[in-house]
Specification:
Structural class: alpha/beta
Low-confidence stretches: none
Organism: Streptomyces sodiiphilus
CATH architecture: 2-Layer Sandwich
Pfam families: STAS
Largest sheet: 6 strands, mixed
Number of strands: 6
Strand content: 15-25%
Protein name: STAS domain-containing protein
Mean pLDDT: 85
InterPro entries: Bact_StressResp_Reg, STAS_dom, STAS_dom_sf
CATH topology: Transcription Regulator spoIIAA
Order of helices and strands: EEEHEHEHEH
Number of helices: 4
CATH superfamily: STAS domain
Helix content: 25-40%
Radius of gyration: 16 Å
CATH class: Alpha Beta
Shape: globular
C-alpha cells in the first residue's frame, strides 16, 4: 500500500517495512505532517522497520537533522527500527561541521543496503525460460 502524506511524501509498505524518502528540504509544517503520518502508520500497521532515503537531499540543516533524530526515537518507542539511507558526503560533512549528531539513527550507504539492514535481501531471479 502506498500513501502520500499531507507533506506530499510517498510512503510505501513492503512486507513489514515502510519505505519513504525526503525529496526536498521540508518546511516546519511539512516536516510535522510527514512525522505524524509516518508515526501513525508505524503504530497502526505494526511495522518492523522504516527506511528513509535522503539521497536527494543536497543540504541538511539542524532542523532536518533534529526531525530525523526525533522521528527515529519515536519509531523506536513504537517498536520499529529506522535506517536513513543515501546520505551524500556533503551532507555528512555538514553534519560534522555543525556538530550535529544523529543519535540512535542507523545509516546505510544506499536504499538496498538499508533494506538489507532491515532484513530484506535481493535474490536474483533465474532467467525466464523461453518457449521450447
Amino acid at each position: 500500500m502506498t500513501s502520500r502524506t499531507p507533506a506530499g511524501v510517498p510512503i510505501l509498505r513492503l512486507g513489514n517495512v515502510l519505505v519513504t524518502g525526503v525529496l526536498d528540504e521540508l518546511d516546519d509544517r511539512a516536516a510535522q505532517a510527514f512525522t505524524e503520518e509516518l508515526t501513525e502508520r508505524i503504530a497502526a500497521e505494526s511495522v518492523h522497520g522504516v527506511l528513509i532515503d535522503i539521497s536527494r537531499l543536497e543540504l541538511i540543516d539542524s532542523f532536518v537533522a533534529r526531525t530525523l533524530s526525533e522521528l527515529t526515537t519515536t519509531a523506536r518507542l513504537l517498536g520499529a527500527r529506522v535506517v536513513v539511507a543515501g546520505m551524500r558526503p556533503a551532507v555528512a560533512i555538514t553534519l560534522v561541521e555543525l556538530g550535529l549528531e544523529l543519535d540512535g539513527v542507523e545509516t546505510a550507504l544506499n536504499a538496498e543496503q538499508g533494506m538489507a539492514a532491515l532484513g530484506w535481501y535481493h535474490t536474483p531471479r533465474p532467467p525466464a525460460e523461453g518457449p521450447r
